Amino acid sequence: MRKIVLTLLLTLIYLKGKAQTSGNASVSLTFSSVARISIASSGSSTLTLGSPATAGLALTTTVSDETKWLNFTSAVASGVSRRIEASISAGTVPSGLQLKLGLNAAVGGGGTLGTIVASVASPITLGTAATVLNNITGAYTGVGVGNGFKLTYTVNVSNYGLLRSGTNVVQITYTLIDN
Amino acid sequence: MIKTGLLGVLLTISLLAEGQAISVSGNWLPSITAISTTGSDYSPSTLTSAANQTLITASGLGSLLVAKNYRISVSKTNTDWHNNLVLTARRTGAGTPSILSAVSASGGTTAQTITNISTAFFTINVSFLSLGGISLSNIPIEYSLSGISVILPVKTYSTTITYTIVEL
């Protein structure tokens, strides 16, 4: 009888020794929407249609500037994409000229930087808001000159007869918009 | 007769001591530093919790005149998670023993990635001199979360970390 009791006790001890329990803790992190856009470097670009070197020759009909870079950071929910539009928000392009914009391939950054709509090979004529880059999702270009999309501005003479001398200031606004 | 009685008393003491148990307290709700420079990603891309973000207490440890070892394992169960997010844990302290020198923790002091599969984290060692029923309280755990980027879809990511104690 004593042996039976002892065996039962030892069995109970053994079973208790193999018990297994657990406890929990949670980790939770919230990502918020981010939409930031800027042009590097600051300041204006100057495009000058200079005088011909020899009297009787035509003006240089195309001048361009590639000193500005488009930087942005975008964070979106699944299924959401964004685009960047460019427009002339102040000033007017002088008669007889066209101001065009093309984006070069992205440099640096990460994520889905989008699809170029206005390329250097196929630039858009700036005026009312037009999409220059589309289908951006979660992405960042990197910061400053040398990162993101180099902007190529070009001035073309579209009508020689309408040209007048002078200086015109044009402001271009870039907007990052949800599709 | 006396020997039998003594044995009975000792066995009863052992049985009265509860089996090993674990309690866990302290969730982690990290917040991301807002982006201040356009074109940049989140910085830092890795967040680290307080050194004692979670406290683990193991109790009901030991047995009369028998050295015991217990394994603490860790795993996570995702409510909503992203594979780019890597969560690690490490033990940053020894905890407080109910009887000095009778119980101690070993291992787990280097960051260990928490996966969905239960993996050994650290070990609790109980001296044979204990009578059983002892505890190691407030073992501090620190977390680290890497892979934070704007590339990840905007939402709340959450997971539940499970610590399990098993006698070896």
How would you portray this structure in words?
Chain A: This is DUF4402 domain-containing protein. Chain A: Residues 1-19 form the signal peptide. Chain A: Keywords: Signal. The complex is a heterodimer of chains A (179) and B (168). Chain A has 179 residues and is mainly β. Chain A has one domain (34-178): Immunoglobulin-like, CATH 2.60.40. In chain A, 9% of the residues lie in helices and 45% in strands. Chain A has one helix at 2-17, and strands at residues 20-30, 34-40, 62-75, 82-90, 97-103, 110-111, 115-116, 124-125, 130-136, 139-140, 149-157, 171-178. In chain A, the strands form two sheets. In chain A, strands 2, 3, 5, 6, 8, 10 and 11 form a seven-stranded antiparallel beta sheet that branches. A four-stranded antiparallel beta sheet of chain A has the order 7-9-4-12, with no helix packed on it. Chain A is elongated. Chain B is mainly β. Chain B has one domain (2-167). Chain B is 9% helix and 45% strand. Chain B has one helix at 2-16; strands spanning 21-25, 47-48, 54-61, 68-80, 86-91, 96-97, 103-106, 112-113, 119-126, 134-146, 156-167. In chain B, the strands form two sheets. In chain B, strands 1, 2, 3, 5, 6, 8 and 10 form a seven-stranded antiparallel beta sheet that branches. A four-stranded antiparallel beta sheet of chain B has the order 7-9-4-11, with no helix packed on it. At the A-B interface, helix 1, strand 1, strand 2, strand 3 and strand 6 of A face helix 1, strand 1, strand 10 and strand 11 of B.
Describe how the helices and strands are arranged.
The complex is a heterodimer of chains A (about 180) and B (about 170).
Chain A: H1 2-17, E1 20-30, E2 34-40, E3 62-75, E4 82-90, E5 97-103, E6 110-111, E7 115-116, E8 124-125, E9 130-136, E10 139-140, E11 149-157, E12 171-178
Antiparallel strand pairs in A: 2-3, 3-10, 3-11, 4-9, 4-12, 5-8, 5-11, 6-10, 7-9
Chain B: H1 2-16, E1 21-25, E2 47-48, E3 54-61, E4 68-80, E5 86-91, E6 96-97, E7 103-106, E8 112-113, E9 119-126, E10 134-146, E11 156-167
Antiparallel strand pairs in B: 1-3, 2-10, 3-10, 4-9, 4-11, 5-8, 5-10, 6-10, 7-9
Organism (chain B): Emticicia aquatilis
Protein name (chain B): DUF4402 domain-containing protein
Organism (chain A): Emticicia aquatilis
